[in-house]
Amino acid sequence: LDLSNCSLQNLPPGLAEASSAAVLDLTENPLMTLPNGSFLGFTLLQLLAVPLPLGCPGGNSAWEEVTTSRSSRLCQGQRNSCNSSGEPAWLCPENAACAPDGPGLIQCLCDSPFHGYKCLREGTFPVLLFCGVLGATTLSLSLLLWGTQRRKAKAP
C-alpha cells in the first residue's frame, strides 16, 4: 500500500481496513506521531516505511531489522511478540494462549472450550437459554403494556 507523499498529517481513519497489507509506505508525509494501536491487526505487515522522525511502531524490538536512510526509516520483518512458548504467563490468563496482533501487540485467545471474561467460563455460550429468557421477557412486557394501554388508545 503506497501512501507516500500524500500530505498526510494523521493516519487515515480507514487504514484499519488495510490490515492484510504486507508492505506499507508512509514516507514523505508530515506525520508527527503514530498513535498507539494504529497498526492493531496488521499481523501480515512485513515492511513498513515511515518518515525519519518517527520510530517503528512497537519499538525496534518488534522488528527483525530497522534501517534508516536520508528521509525514511524502514521497519522490516515483524517479530512475534509472544515468547517462544507462545504464552507469556504474565500477559494472558490461565486458559488462554498468546497470539500476535500487529507490531509489538498481542492478543489473548481463549483455549477451547473456555470463553468469557478472562476465559473463566467453560463450555459454550447458552444461546438457547439466553434467547428464550429474552423472548419470554419481551413477550410478557409487550402483553402487559398492550393490556394497560389499549383503553387509552380507544378513548375519543
Automatic annotation (TrEMBL):
Keywords linked to the UniProt accession: Membrane, Transmembrane, Transmembrane helix
SUPFAM superfamilies the UniProt entry points to: L domain-like
One biological process term in Gene Ontology: positive regulation of osteoblast differentiation
Spans through the membrane: 125-146
EGF-like domain sequence ranges: 108-119
Protein name, entry field: ARAID factor
Originating organism: Eolophus roseicapilla
Primary gene name: Atraid
